[in-house]
């Protein structure tokens, strides 16, 4: 949730305003973008309501229209259809510099011949702010991003993370109503990425600013955002909290994109009240949530099971629940967990995640194993019609 109203951010302190007074909501109404000559709309009717002070992640694969949507909000691309509303004012007719939207581009786009302070002050200079006010404000922003000690550095003398902080300070310096970030961590080493994610979220909270962040990395979206908007081919597939997106993906696409899912062909075997039932998959009957509401017994479905919802049993062990039989074919250690690949009789394979710290002895490759759903887990079934 947005930071509590009592928190007064450093650059709001002068005005005495609190976060809740300064933050603006952002509303997209049926935005469509058709580039000339393109066969498909790059953005195909996206509506999104972002609360004041909220951090929303726009999550989707490369080419799904994320950057286009950001450029439309910033005013660099005029949308074919739809409206953009900030607070309660439509901003469609305004040029970029009148929209009060701050953008951090994917490559940071710092001016190479200007030092950190000059970069941050640039927007204020363009707005004709007096020189000393420019410097004061730029220093304040560099302090916010913990770069005050490097104010005289040129971009080429800074690391990727430092350049990103400066780009963020530059975007915030002009007190935008909305902050847009395009793949802000893509250029950073993995080890630095987590630190910068924490840092950006801290700054966003402190500034109390409404933020739309583009990413193709589902973990990043999950860990940073208050809500996640999953986009596929220019369309919004689901807009919900990270937990909701992960636990109750509304479409097969969302399920596969956010969860590294095992997707298997199956059929609906039974249906009880609501969305629960069982599916027949790989020769066994498993409890399932029938996501597509119209599903009925006998329908063909895609059955999705997350690797961490499964656990392996050796053929010699007691099998508690209905299990998928296969042969352990590959073992991929991944830091805290190990992904085990199990080949099924029909030649397809499923992935099973095992905690690395587990003291159970690792099964050896080539042995017959059973993959059972963990207690209380159920798979998700989507219509394959
Ligand atoms: N200026 C442009 N002219 C024509 N097509 C474009 C332009 N910019 C992007 N596209 C196309 O629009 C689609 C969405 O692109 P983009 O918004 O950059 O996606 P993303 O940021 O999600 O990777 C792609 O098919 C891309 O090729
Ligand atoms: Mg992009």
Poorly predicted runs are 1-19
The strand line-up of the biggest sheet is 6-7-8-3-9-10
List the secondary-structure elements in sequence, H or E: HHEEEHEEEHHHEHEHEEHHEEEEEEEEEE
In the residues, how many domains can be counted?
Answer: 2
Ions, cofactors and other bound molecules: adenosine-5'-diphosphate, magnesium ion
Q: Give the radius of gyration.
A: 25 Å
Task: Give the oligomer, counting copies of the same chain as homo and different chains as hetero.
Answer: single chain
The largest sheet is:
6 strands, mixed
The CATH class designation of the largest domain is Alpha Beta
Mean pLDDT score? 89
State the distance separating the first and last CA atoms. 39 Å
What is the CATH architecture annotation of the largest domain? 3-Layer(aba) Sandwich
Shape: elongated
CATH fold-type name of the largest domain: Rossmann fold
Q: From the helix content, strand content and strand pairing, which structural class follows?
A: alpha+beta
CATH homolog superfamily of the largest domain: P-loop containing nucleotide triphosphate hydrolases
Strand composition percent = 25-35%
Q: What is the β-strand count?
A: 20
Q: Helix fraction?
A: 10-25%
